Amino acid sequence: xxxxxxxxxxxxxxxxxxxxxxxxxVKTLGTHNTxxxxxxxxxxPLFTEKFDIVFxxxxxxxxxxxxxxxxxxxxxxxxNGTVNLCNALEENLPDIFIFISTVAVYGKxxxxxxxxDSPLQGSTPYAKSKIMAExxxxxxxxxxxxxxxxxxxxxxxxxxxxxxxxxxxxxxxxGRYFNIAGGKARKSxxxxxxxxxxxxxxxxxxxxxxxxxxDYHPDFNEISKKISEILGxxxxxxxxxxxxxxxAVIGDxxxxxxxxxxxxxxxxxxxxxxxxxxxxxx
Length: 282
Hints:
- With about 280 residues, the protein is of the alpha/beta class.
- The chain contains nine helices and 13 strands.
- Strands 3-2-1-4-5-7-11 form a seven-stranded parallel sheet, with helices on both faces. The chain has a two-stranded parallel ribbon with strand order 6-13. A two-stranded parallel sheet has the order 8-10.
- About 35% of the residues are buried.
């Protein structure tokens, strides 16, 4: 079977494509060094072959827009790019379309065992653009009889991870990471290479919308200890909650001059976990 993997130069592509190549013929799409070098935000790619599976991992994430133009780029990449990709596929429709969305669509900063029935209340440009892409794909795939899997991963772990986990690794490397109130807040995590296993299993399963995370939800203390162990660094120190709360209040007043405020403190000290029950059932 032939797979088209978009976003081939990204974190998922670097880790998942080598594993998919053991079982599939994989063609890649990205802005450079790929089989189809194309910026799908700017133009519709021209494909010369049919793909059995499209693994759409191209997207923009892991940044906070500082202005309106930066916010609009999320829509350009995550939504417009998806529309352009689908327009290009209409000449030779795939059998299966796997879309990498995000649990950010739920708009939750805290909560436990959140499932796929939760309302989509994400309000950031990242979340909204992914919601728009999901809605477009649901209609497009139904119209063209393409089996659709919308995958909503939690925090993704792997070699040189991006985003918050990558920031934690860097902070531990430099000795600037501290747990707050014992680091007891739990987070859902998924290992990046397991996307290849999901793709293998999707072939004979029903499409649908699925949260993707592991059964066990480690807390910040466990995560930071494991990273420190791997890096050969000292175990991070702990900041008492009252000290962190005082710093957060100061952060509310003076802004980004210190890296914490009340909202960030709540995110760090409250658990955010997701249910994988639906995924495991299939």
